[in-house]
Amino acid sequence: MPPPKVNHVGSVSFVIEIYPPKKQTIDPLSTIHYPLFNMRAVCWQSANKVEVETVPDPKILNPRDAIVKITSTAICGSDLHLYAGMIPTVKKGDIIGHEFMGEVVELGSKVNNVKIGDRVVVPFSIACGSCFFCSRDFWSLCDNSNTNAWAIEKFMGHSPSGIYGYSHLLGGYAGGQAEYARVPFADVGLLKIPDGLTDEQVIFLTDIFPTGYMAAENCQIQQGDTVAIWGCGPIGQFAIRSAFMLGAERVIAIDRIPERLQMAQAGGAEILNYEEIEVGEALKEMTGGRGPDAVMDAVGMEAHGQGIEGLYDKAMQAVKLELDRANVLRQVIVACRKGGTVSLPGDYIGLVDKVPMGAFMNKGLTMKSGQTHIHKYLRPLLDRIQKGDIDPTFIITHILPLEQAAHGYKIFQQKQDNCIKIVLKPGLAAV
Ligand SMILES: NC(=O)c1ccc[n+]([C@@H]2O[C@H](COP(=O)([O-])OP(=O)(O)OC[C@H]3O[C@@H](n4cnc5c(N)ncnc54)[C@H](O)[C@@H]3O)[C@@H](O)[C@H]2O)c1
Ligand SMILES: [Zn+2]
Ligand SMILES: [Zn+2]
Q: Which listed ligand is nearest to 232 at the C-alpha?
């Protein structure tokens, strides 16, 4: 295995973290501020299997690290791709989860922006704050946080930032569905939460609210525009509300799960159930034949395909001829009006098949995408929450003890029990 590259400007030298460490050493003279017990954490086991295990507590490895005692953590649609076994280089025992917040319990010597005891939220992407990309507000493209960049560069050309609990390709960082987590570059990543706001109001600043918001910004909305959004999961829901905040006149939301469509409608969207209607035709009809000004794929690589196309994608994926199912990506390109914008917050990891590039090129479309630059949106969206522009708690359908994570993953993946978004709480008693 080639050595990891530390070839970038402006970072402290990086310690490669292999997680969870094989064995814990307890130093009786340590002055750290949290108990030295082994913690509980959600660990990936194999496709469609996670377990809560006892693992070593995290430690400060670099002067810019903090240790956060987690009070709330959420399961993301992106975690479902891990859960399904679709993300390469996840290993048995890896601690997963990238949406988490809590209390600072230990600080490296170079972290001066927060104090022990502060309540903080943690952006899901890890960013140094000083490289070429961070200084241009492209935080999820940070050049200094993926310790295994060399591996991903082989097939993507360049590496995005590291992400908590999201495979060894993205840095091998221990995730936040746990009692504690190590936060690298804590001096730029942590947002202190003002008093008076509950965890449930602010936890989604870690990912899904900024992701929906950036996806709506990527639609390049002009006053009066119509935006069509495929996928009414948490990302689609925040995208609907953000599109209205950014001036869309109409939002049309597409899914097949009744409670998700209902929630989209409650957010002001017109809704289409793709199992009951031909979506492309319906969109033309609803827009006087022109098509939506912007379209959004808030579904990504696990799109549920229909008919022969659906079977084709599943077969291609099974024999590894395509990694991602591009069903929705194909639809959004064909549905978009000429000269319109395609926003792509849905996650893709590798190669897609039969994408209608002819339509994309000849209709003069623009595509905007990316992992969300969370750091850029933290304060502006916290302001919106404080002003009452949005109450992000609308999305929560389940609050479960961390210990019930396996059940949470199952009902979220299988859309059981009307599940739309789960918050896990370490220490919450089982009900
Ligand atoms: N860009 C980022 O930074 C970022 C951040 C978080 C999540 N994501 C990605 O966004 C996507 C959505 O996340 P989520 O949390 O909302 O996930 P989710 O799985 O809860 O929601 C996806 C929704 O898409 C619907 N769907 C499936 N096939 C469809 C089809 N053919 N047409 C219309 N709808 C369809 C499903 O019924 C479901 O409601 C995922 O791919 C996730 O990985 C990206
Ligand atoms: Zn997420
Ligand atoms: Zn950076």
A: 1
